[in-house]
Design a protein that fits this description.
This protein is an alpha/beta fold and 496 residues long. It contains 15 helices and eleven strands.
Length: 496
């Protein structure tokens, strides 16, 4: 099945002219027509434009352009609906942007196009990336291709579901508190959150500016490394972009992990961790040890404060960033008799309940009399959390944890309980607060709960999270690649 080739397999076949870029793109479109009515990973897709891009890639291949020159030449890649693509709608999973069409490309999209990728489609997401289940989208929820009664994770649920279901060969997501790694784990693909500053945020609609990062989602670690290599690097248009040179991630994959020292934080093996998740983690640790790594217990003592700190800092930044959506300059507009009514009516009709909740919370913690008590204190805790990780990386080369405390949960299961939804990100949030890198790689499957809780006989993917020191993407990719090469979890495909 062409649509289930890895990115590396596709580029090899394209290079040998065994398949054309148009055939690869058409395979994705055919797959979308089959599964989208059930999965709803895409908000929109311009098929004629995608095929035109594929035809241009075929002309380049015929003219002798190689994948050494353009590593993604002819590869269909879809983009989360929070990243700007010129001429395509930019809705952020919300109604408030109306019929807005992006007038420019994000830096990551420029780099994908320069590498020859066929950039197509807008992938569904929680509104303004605020959520852990892709149920908060104004365009309707996305379903998990492994069990349609379950969520795909969030906020990059559309990206993860599309990759897992074979609707694209890779995708871009964004990660503010786990929004790449958690859905990658729930959908059985690879998702990587780079170090803060490694990938340009120019053209990414901001949720929480000190936490957001764009990253790749793919079927294999090698594919993710290839995409990361394309989109990484300094960008003068992003003041938070680090001048740190990006290595050749794909070339750094080999070499194995013998002698690597991995830390297992005791704070992550706590009550509330699903026994199926714990069992898969223990099996993955044994496999890493069999490959020559040493796994030792470590402590990240301020972990228990991560959720509270995150939801103060992230919502404070969101309340400021989303103030620009006011019905005046662009997007949807609900008229009112005066400017205040215009703002209130536009934002009241345009934002969903979760976005409103976070804006209100953020405005509260920044308000006079509460700034020091909440926001300033949360920033101090954030410093302690980062220090925990930096201290740990003096003892170990990388850290292994679960990406989520449970497998994918049922649609609607946590929709009415925001606190339980927020706790879905308990193992991923600290990575963003510390500004380090992390990824999730498939490490097994869990049987669904007894009948009545999902599709009969459903197998739910599980992931292994590997966290690395700042700008240590090469090391965690190498560890994940060695693990993945020794297992076959990533080779299984969903039943949809």
């Amino acid at each position: 099945m062409l649509h289930y080739l890895t990115l590396a397999e596709l580029t090899a076949r394209l290079g040998r002219r065994e398949v054309s870029a148009r055939q690869a793109m058409q395979a994705c479109l055919d797959r979308m027509s089959k599964v989208e009515p059930r999965i709803h990973a895409f908000i929109s897709a311009d098929a004629p434009d995608a095929l035109a891009q594929a035809d241009a890639a075929d002309r380049a291949l015929a003219a002798g352009v190689t994948h050494a020159q353009q590593p993604l030449l002819g590869v269909p890649i879809a983009v989360k609906d929070v990243i700007a693509v010129r001429g395509q709608p930019l809705n952020c999973g919300s109604k408030i942007l109306g019929r807005f069409v992006s007038p420019y490309d994000a830096t990551v999209v420029e780099r994908l196009k320069a590498a020859g990728a066929v950039v197509f489609g807008r992938l569904n997401m929680d509104e303004f990336a605020m959520g852990s289940s892709t149920e908060n989208s104004a365009f309707g929820p996305t379903r998990n291709p492994w069990d349609l009664s379950r969520i795909p994770g969030g906020s990059s649920g559309g990206s993860a579901a599309a990759v897992a279901a074979g609707e694209c060969f890779a995708a871009l997501g964004s990660d503010t508190g786990g929004s790449i790694r958690q859905p990658a784990a729930f959908c059985g693909c690879v998702g990587l959150k780079p170090t803060y500053g490694r990938v340009s945020r120019y053209g990414l609609v901001a949720y929480a500016s000190s936490l957001d990062q764009i990253g790749p989602m793919a079927r294999t670690v090698a594919d993710a490394a290839t995409v990361l290599g394309v989109i990484s690097g300094h960008d003068s248009r992003d003041s938070t972009s680090a001048p740190e040179p990006a290595p050749d991630y794909a070339a750094a994959l080999d070499g194995g992990i013998r002698g690597l020292k991995l830390g297992l934080p005791k704070e992550y093996l706590v009550g509330g961790l699903d026994p199926r998740v714990k069992s898969a983690l223990e099996s993955a640790v044994r496999q890493l040890e069999a490959l020559g790594a040493e796994v030792v217990e470590i402590s990240l003592p301020h972990t228990e404060y991560a959720i509270a700190s995150y939801y103060i800092i992230a919502t404070a930044e969101a309340s400021a960033n989303l103030a620009r959506f006011d019905g005046v300059r662009y997007g949807a507009r609900v008229e009112g008799p005066d400017p205040i009514q215009l703002y209130c009516r536009t934002r009241g009709a345009g934002f969903g309940s979760e976005v409103k909740r976070r804006i209100i919370l953020g405005a509260y913690v920044l308000s006079s009399g509460y700034y020091d008590a909440y926001y300033l204190r949360a920033q101090k805790v954030r410093t302690l959390i980062r220090r925990d990780f930096l201290n740990a990386f003096q003892q170990v080369d990388a850290i292994v944890t679960p990406p989520a405390p449970t497998p994918a949960f049922r649609v609607g299961e946590k929709a009415d309980d925001p606190m339980q939804m927020y706790l879905s990100d308990i193992f991923t949030i600290s990575c963003n607060l510390a500004g380090i890198c992390g990824l999730s790689v498939p490490c097994g499957f869990a049987a669904a709960e007894p009948a009545g809780a999902g599709q009969a006989g459903a197998q739910l993917p599980l992931g292994l999270q590997i966290l690395g020191r700042p700008f240590g993407e090469a090391a965690i990719l190498r560890a994940a690649h060695a693990y993945q090469q020794s297992t076959a979890w990533h080779k299984q495909t969903p039943p949809c």
